[in-house]
Amino acid sequence: MYKELMQAVIGKLHATILCRKYKADKYVFFPDSRGACLKWGISLLPEYMRQNKIHQIIVLAADNSVKKEIMKQGITNIRFHKVSKYSMNCLLDYYALKDMSAQWIVVSTKKPYDTGAERLLGIKGVTYRDIIYYDIYKLDGEET
């Protein structure tokens, strides 16, 4: 417990530095940068920006696979910032203690805590796209 609290304090310091440096509308974290969460998380970001009238998003990840996916999908209005795995864990520990959901989005079903959303996969046709679209990004209607 002490370790997580200390990491949360360090995460708060990292968050303060990031927010002062970038001054973005939203920060999107990809702690698990592989698989369907990554693919759908990146491909639905432009729709998220459009529906919420957001102009600047900073995507944070611990490796370059997220940046490669952004480039592969041809998205140009999203900035990428790489952080260390330790920094990512610290930021997520801080997020678990303080509600930062107005400014941060964590594209994961397991971090900073398990939401149980993966148990819905396959039930009545629920896919990763549905979980990210409706649960994580909280988008309305169907994608245009």
Compile the SSE list and pairings:
Elements: H1 2-22, E1 26-30, H2 35-43, H3 45-52, E2 57-61, H4 65-72, E3 78-82, H5 85-97, E4 104-106, H6 128-136
Parallel strand pairs: 1-2, 1-4, 2-3
Describe this structure in words.
The protein is α/β, with parallel strands linked by helices and 144 residues long. It has one domain. It has helices at 2-22, 35-43, 45-52, 65-72, 85-97, 128-136; strands at 26-30, 57-61, 78-82, 104-106. It has a four-stranded parallel β-sheet, with helices on both faces. Strand 2 (57-61), helix 4 (65-72) and strand 3 form a beta-alpha-beta unit. Helix 1 (2-22) packs across helix 5. The N and C termini lie far apart (45 Å). The mean pLDDT is 89.
| Mean pLDDT over the full residue set | 89
Return residue spans where pLDDT drops below 50 for at least 5 consecutive residues: none
Q: How many discrete structural domains? A: 1
Alpha-beta classification: alpha/beta
Number of strands: 4
The amount of beta strand, in percent, is 5-15%
Q: What's the order of the H and E elements?
A: HEHHEHEHEH
Distance between the termini: 45 Å
Radius of gyration: 15 Å
Q: In percent, how helical is the residue content?
A: 40-55%
Query: What's the helix count?
Result: 6
Shape call: globular
Major sheet: size, sense and barrel closure?
4 strands, parallel
Strand order of the largest sheet: 3-2-1-4
